[in-house]
Amino acid sequence: MSPTTKTKTFQSVAALLATRHTAGVSLSSLIKQLKKIQDIWTAVVSAELAQHSRPTFYANGRLTISADSPVWANSIRHNQTSLVQRLRQHGLPKVEIIQIRVLPSDQQRRRVPVRRKNPSPDMQQAIRSTAKGIQDVELRTALLKLSKILR
Question: What is the model's pTM?
Answer without folding.
Answer: 0.56
